[in-house]
Amino acid sequence: MDEQRPAAVVVGVDGSRTALRAVSWATREARRRGAALRIVHAAPYADGNAAGERRASSILTLAHTVATQTLPGVPTVTERLTGPMPRALVDAGAEAQLLVVGMSGGSRFDDVLLHSVALQVCALATCPVAVVRGHQFSGPADGPVVLAVEDATSDAPAVTVAFADAQHHASRLAVVHAVHAGGPTSLRSGYDARVALEGEILDSLRPWRSDHPDVPVDLQVVSGAAAGHLLEASVTARLLVLGTRARGAAARAILGSTSRTVLRRSACPVLVVRRDAVLAESTAPPSATPPGLTRGPERWAPERWALHPQDRSERW
Q1: Residue-level pLDDT at 277
Q2: How many other C-beta atoms lie within 10 A of the C-beta of residue 191?
Q3: Total number of domains constituting the chain
Q4: Which residues are 102's β-sheet partners?
Q5: Is residue 283 part of a domain?
Q6: Peptide bond into 86 cis (omega under 30)
Q7: For a surface tag, which of 69, 151, 225, 306 has the fewest beta carbons within 10 Å of its beta carbon?
Q8: Does residue 71 sit in the same domain as residue 154?
Q9: CA angle, corner 238, sides to 78 and 148, nearest 5?
């Protein structure tokens, strides 16, 4: 029996420069994962329209050229989708191990449209979605994977993806947990409470640390809204991983205020993983006891970003 080939990395393109940056990023990611690259373009406008067909073909040809120039050896196919975005892209990534989209950082109409599409794809897709930012800086190649964790059990798919990515890239993992001022786990009760909370978080990560013993893990428990701390971490990170709730199709129902802010302003690519995500390469948490974890630098400084306090009904 032939060995099953790994699921593909799917990237959506629309002819923009931002999408071409996403193609380059997706190509390198496909190589690291040993997967094929599938470039897709939703072109309902091309049905029965010669000019539309030429435009769609040109967009896909250019994207394929960018992928080939990035890494010639990655198996790459292109496909024109007939349905409208973002549903067509979500359907194309139904069995992918990763779905990649671009998001620009500007305020023009096209930029706002890219924002909307990326947010909707993150809300609808059941596979992990990587949002590649539309600027030249993409973080240092040897930067850490930053993982935002609210609860390791609920965010298990995101934790699994973050550890696996750190393993693939031989990088360290920086885990960030935000404590809301005045909340039930507030840090105002003193040093002992902080140490106890750190211990609980480290204990909850034991199954993954056991499964990935070569991944150095740092823990940062921060106070206040999480978005500012995550944006600050994104400046030196290679990738930022967020877990999101799955309560419906609307982006605002699934993506909390932290996720939306980080997606729009992150300095590095952001990987969004729904709590009901279907992982192509998932592993069951093992029961073995891992070696001790490393606590990262403690950060109890007040929120440094001018952000509104996070609505607790809208978590990551």
Answers
A1: 83
A2: 10
A3: 2
A4: 132
A5: no
A6: yes
A7: 306
A8: no
A9: 105
